[in-house]
Amino acid sequence: MRLLPTLSALVGTCAATSLHLSISPSSSLLDLSELPSSTHATLYGPSGKRATAPLRVDNSFVFNNLEEGEWLLDVHSRDHVFPSLRVDVVDSVSILPIKQEGDGEAAPVAAAPETVVVYLTHPSNKWSHLGAKIAASTAPLSSTDEVKLSVSALGKRSFYEQRQGFDLLSFFKNPMILMGVLSMGLVFGMPYLMENMDEETKAEFAEMQKQGPLGLGGAGGQGQNTAQQIQNFDLAGWMAGKK
């Protein structure tokens, strides 16, 4: 007869709060069946503690017997990225308010303290910086209460850069291609322009060709004198104001 009370006591001591994390569809993961079987979730706790939960058939993870402490929850997937979660587990006995003298029966009842609180976090944030609260529980840790929450994939992992195709517009935007097209236009278009010139313009153009570029290639000593003047030009004296 004493066996039944002993078993019930053992069951009561073994019962503890559990965490149930489910994955919900998102724009980057519409079909949850695409998740590989290697997907798993890990709880990193103080003093090197670690707990791992595999992916279940209903696309969820279950962590039983939550221990007191501050935990980091990460979902590891081959093809998708999930947000990081911070799980704070506090024993409700240690945070109960201490009754002071003079507190009568009419004193207001304090709200039940939260024993399990889940926040959104990011690896680049300080640990003291708490993100948005997404789940909480006020049940004692020794109860069979289950903290339920869901997360969605933030995006899909990309391991390879997609090769860009041929773009005709970007090809003609290349400066070397533009210079080549302009040179070909001058080579093939100049004879056509010369044929359509009037006699006076042709004469002026022929005179310019005789003088050469910048008027330095003409026959006689005038071109040579001009080239010599340019070679003997005193740049420092000109900048100093000398004539």
From TrEMBL:
Keywords assigned by UniProt, alphabetized: Membrane, Signal, Transmembrane, Transmembrane helix
Membrane topology label: Single-pass membrane protein
Membrane-traversing stretches: 176-194
Subcellular compartments: Membrane
Domain ER membrane protein complex subunit 7 beta-sandwich: 34-179
Signal sequence interval, chain numbering: 1-16
Record's GO cellular component terms: EMC complex
PANTHER family per the UniProt record, alphabetical: ER MEMBRANE PROTEIN COMPLEX SUBUNIT 7
Protein name per UniProt: ER membrane protein complex subunit 7 beta-sandwich domain-containing protein
Organism: Aureobasidium melanogenum (strain CBS 110374)
Lineage of source species: Eukaryota, Fungi, Dikarya, Ascomycota, Pezizomycotina
